[in-house]
């Protein structure tokens, strides 16, 4: 009888381990947005490495969704607080695809001000830039999407 209990216990332990390994192997997979293909494992395609940040000029693998992630900025230099309004006008946001945070950063990528956005909320933020501490020409606005990474635009558009 003892031998049968030992075999049953071992079988149960092996089953639990196998189930755990199966569960853990799938937990890193993110749901894919409709219309966005994951990178191909085909050897003819080069693997895509995420960029530190994406821009209008360099959207990389997210070119098809760039316009939904680039923010619209209003900057009022005459105000000392709440002088930047940022809106993300994307039409494809949902409970599964949303903007997590909107903010401004300096030339060293240090956060100056930011606002976390609730899932399902309109991605709008009113931020403050202290003009005594920061040069607006060196500041970037950033938008962090849960699926499409970090997008940045200069606070002040460069004239060409």
Word description of this protein:
The chain has about 160 residues and is an alpha+beta fold. It is about 20% helix and about 25% strand. The chain contains two helices and seven strands. It has a four-stranded antiparallel sheet with strand order 4-3-6-7, with no helix packed on it. The chain has a three-stranded antiparallel sheet with strand order 1-2-5, with no helix packed on it. It starts with a helix and ends in a 6-residue tail after the last strand. About 20% of the residues are buried. Mean pLDDT is about 80; it is low at about 25-45.
Order of helices and strands: HHEEEEEEE
* Silhouette: elongated
Count of helices? Answer: 2
The main sheet orders its strands as: 4-3-6-7
Distance between the termini: 86 Å
Rg (CA only) = 23 Å
Q: Regarding quaternary structure, how should these chains be classified?
A: single chain
The total strand number stands at 7
Determine the fraction of residues in helical runs and give it as a percent range: 10-25%
List low-confidence stretches.
24-44
In terms of DSSP E residues, the strand content is 15-25%
Mean of all residue-level pLDDT scores? 80
Structural class: alpha+beta
Q: The biggest beta sheet, please?
A: 4 strands, antiparallel
């Amino acid at each position: 009888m003892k031998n049968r209990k030992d075999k049953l216990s071992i079988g149960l332990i092996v089953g639990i381990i196998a189930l755990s390994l199966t569960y853990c192997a799938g937990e890193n997979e993110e749901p894919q947005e409709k219309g966005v293909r994951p990178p191909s494992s085909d050897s003819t395609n080069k693997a895509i490495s995420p960029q530190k940040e994406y821009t209008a000029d360099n959207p990389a693998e997210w070119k098809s969704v760039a316009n939904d992630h680039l923010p619209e900025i209003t900057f009022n230099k005459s105000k000392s607080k709440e002088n930047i309004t940022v809106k993300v006008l994307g039409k494809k946001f949902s409970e599964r695809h949303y903007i997590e945070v909107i903010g401004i950063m300096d030339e060293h990528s240090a956060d100056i001000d930011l606002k976390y956005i609730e899932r399902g909320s309109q991605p709008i933020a009113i931020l403050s830039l202290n003009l005594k501490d920061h040069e607006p020409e060196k500041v970037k606005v950033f938008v962090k999407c849960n699926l499409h990474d970090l997008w940045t635009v200069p606070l002040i558009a460069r004239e060409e």
